[in-house]
Fold:
Amino acid sequence: MIIFFDGFDEIPEKNKSRIAREIKDTSHSHCDNYYIITSRPENILSTFASYLKYRIRPLTILEAKRLLKKYMINDKKMYEELILEIEKNHDVLKDFLQTPLLASLLYEAYSFKRNIPETKLEYYNQVFEVLYQAHDSNSKEAFVREIELNNLEF
Structure:
């Protein structure tokens, strides 16, 4: 059996030592299982000395473009427009395109507004707006609420 502990870095600081101890105790007493812990780098993770450490390699620009092409397989024109924007704004988008999730969210944001955000704040605001509207449009009543994005800070 494979057991995932996702987001170890999201545990409140006051609970991390206890949770780490519980994970280690569980993995020692049930050693026939595989345990995977996901986290941003943290010092406490060094207590898992017997665990193997992996890092996810950032996507290259080419890999990000291939991923976006898969999402836009039915809209070649939009894909080509987005690729042109990426090539114009490569420096601005570099961080977004290195992570599959952020590249996917860029696709969602671009599909919604057909423009490329110039800052991280604008990017996350646009992503939040598109996901918020998609959520509301999927509700049974097709409820559309007003949202205020000006107060989001990162």
User: Anything to note?
Assistant: Strands lie at 2-5, 34-37. The mean pLDDT is 84. The radius of gyration is 20 Å.
